[in-house]
UniProtKB/TrEMBL annotation:
Membership in a protein family: Belongs to the CLN5 family.
Record GO terms (molecular function): bis(monoacylglycero)phosphate synthase activity; D-mannose binding; hydrolase activity, acting on glycosyl bonds; long-chain fatty acyl-CoA hydrolase activity; palmitoyl-(protein) hydrolase activity
One Pfam family it belongs to: CLN5
Keyword Phosphoprotein annotated: no
Highest taxon of the lineage: Eukaryota
Protein name: Bis(monoacylglycero)phosphate synthase CLN5
Source organism of this protein record: Cebus imitator (Panamanian white-faced capuchin)
Task of the protein: Exhibits palmitoyl protein thioesterase (S-depalmitoylation) activity in vitro and most likely plays a role in protein S-depalmitoylation. Catalyzes the synthesis of bis(monoacylglycero)phosphate (BMP) via transacylation of 2 molecules of lysophosphatidylglycerol (LPG). BMP also known as lysobisphosphatidic acid plays a key role in the formation of intraluminal vesicles and in maintaining intracellular cholesterol homeostasis. Can use only LPG as the exclusive lysophospholipid acyl donor for base exchange and displays BMP synthase activity towards various LPGs (LPG 14:0, LPG 16:0, LPG 18:0, LPG 18:1) with a higher preference for longer chain lengths.
Top-tier EC class: hydrolase
Catalytic activity: 2 1-octadecanoyl-sn-glycero-3-phospho-(1'-sn-glycerol) = 1-octadecanoyl-sn-glycero-3-phospho-(3'-octadecanoyl-1'-sn-glycerol) + sn-glycero-3-phospho-(1'-sn-glycerol); 2 1-acyl-sn-glycero-3-phospho-(1'-sn-glycerol) = 1-acyl-sn-glycero-3-phospho-(3'-acyl-sn-1'-glycerol) + sn-glycero-3-phospho-(1'-sn-glycerol); 2 1-hexadecanoyl-sn-glycero-3-phospho-(1'-sn-glycerol) = 1-hexadecanoyl-sn-glycero-3-phospho-(3'-hexadecanoyl-1'-sn-glycerol) + sn-glycero-3-phospho-(1'-sn-glycerol); 2 1-(9Z-octadecenoyl)-sn-glycero-3-phospho-(1'-sn-glycerol) = 1-(9Z-octadecenoyl)-sn-glycero-3-phospho-(3'-(9Z-octadecenoyl)-1'-sn-glycerol) + sn-glycero-3-phospho-(1'-sn-glycerol)
One Gene Ontology term from the biological process aspect of the record: brain development
Enzyme nomenclature, EC number: 3.1.2.22
Key word Glycoprotein present: yes
Cellular component terms per the entry's GO annotation: cytosol; endoplasmic reticulum; Golgi apparatus; lysosomal membrane; perinuclear region of cytoplasm; vacuolar lumen
Length: 389
């Protein structure tokens, strides 16, 4: 949810110590691009921060708030029956090289540092960090709506140094949520990846003024070092951001079709891993922002090749592009308002939504209340009871 402030306080993509770098994380369309060389993580993402696509991305992220305020299309032929929900988040063997077409308003992780190796007998204080999304630009505006960004802080008691670790979008939220329709390409083009970041220092004012900075645990240096190894593996295999949690209804026991993969999920996974390593967390309330879509059981439609390829379903391909067309970037205010009406007509009136998940397309038969933003409590884990994420 992109709650970072740009400039010196923003991190670079992490590079654990004493490890070879892999290809920089970037964006692809439906295809994963081959890795080239041993480029250090984060280097590729610091290339040019184009403004137009970033501004449009932020505008569409704000448009999600408008939809959230609003209280058996055709089944693809030979599509498999999907009965085991939620659909698992797909992990990958490597990160693809970034595509230069994808640009960010704010450069991804410009001031990061390697994760240090701590002494085994060091006591590392762990902090829960949370602040309103885009706090650097809008202050507490989105905080009033409980739209928050999450991170983790650490402090070494031996050295006195502190650090911040978080996970967020490479090209802002809008680009991770909706594709670009490029005239020279048949398929929608996605600028969607997320990655972990680590940097020295904790911006106390950023987290305290409108959010949270509170100690939740103390771990050993050995636990911290084991966590660093896990973060590297998690970061290299979980490469794309997923905005939506898709459920059958707002009821707590309702079926979950798809789960989100965002900053809060990274924080929760890290807490779980620390609990597995033996960390004991304090008993304090911890809440997180989630963005829900509500639908009947999703229909699997296919991947880029099967839908948009030479032998693909042209009618379906056209319907998907027509759905995404109102989300296009570079809109004037007049075009933006017209597009909002078109989105309202598709999602609320005709109850249709096309989801891109695991580099595959799904049709969601939307249900009331369609979309909702919540701020839910998820307890801190303990060694005998980790969080399901």
């Amino acid at each position: 949810r992109g709650g970072l402030r740009p400039g010196p306080a923003a991190p670079r993509k992490l590079r654990p110590p004493a490890s070879r770098g892999s290809g920089g994380a970037g964006s692809t369309g439906g295809r994963l691009m081959a890795q080239e060389g041993d480029t250090a993580l984060g280097v590729e993402m610091r290339r040019g921060a184009g403004g137009a696509r970033g501004r449009a991305s932020r505008r569409w992220a704000l448009a999600l708030l408008c939809l959230a305020a609003v209280p058996g299309w055709l089944r693809a032929s030979d599509s498999p029956s999907r009965r085991h929900w939620p659909e698992p988040y797909k992990r990958f063997d490597f990160r693809p090289k970034p595509d230069p077409y994808c640009q960010a308003k704010y450069t991804f992780c410009p001031t990061g540092s390697p994760i240090p190796v701590m002494k085994d007998d060091d006591d590392i204080e762990v902090f829960r960090l949370q602040a309103p999304v885009w706090e650097f630009k809008y202050g507490d505006l989105l905080g009033h709506l409980k739209i928050m960004h999450d991170a983790i802080g650490f402090r070494s008691t031996l050295t006195g140094k502190n650090y911040t670790m978080e996970w967020y979008e490479l090209f802002q939220l809008g680009n991770c949520t909706f594709p670009h329709l490029r005239p020279e390409m048949e398929a929608p083009f996605w600028c969607n990846q997320g990655a972990a970041c680590f940097f020295e220092g904790i911006d106390d004012a950023h987290w305290k003024e409108n959010g949270t900075l509170v100690q939740i645990a103390t771990i050993s240096g050995n636990m911290f070092n084991n966590m660093a190894k896990w973060v590297k593996q998690d970061n290299e295999t979980g490469i794309y951001y997923e905005t939506w949690t898709v459920k059958a209804s707002p009821e707590k026991a309702a079926e979950t079709w798809f789960d989100s993969y965002d900053c809060s999920k990274f924080v929760l996974r890290t807490y779980n891993k620390l609990a597995e390593f033996g960390a004991e967390f304090k008993k304090i309330e911890t809440n997180y922002t989630r963005i829900f879509l509500y639908s009947g059981e999703p229909t699997y439609l296919g991947n880029e090749t099967s839908v948009f390829g030479p032998t693909g379903n042209k009618t379906l391909a056209l319907a998907i592009k027509k759905f995404y067309y109102p989300f296009k970037p570079h809109l004037s205010t007049k075009e933006f308002m017209l597009s909002l009406l078109q989105i309202f007509d598709a999602v609320i009136v005709h109850r249709q939504f096309y989801l891109f998940y695991n580099f595959e397309y799904w049709f969601l038969p939307m249900k009331f209340p369609f979309i909702k933003i919540t701020y839910e409590e998820i307890p801190l884990p303990n060694r005998n009871n980790t969080i399901g994420v």
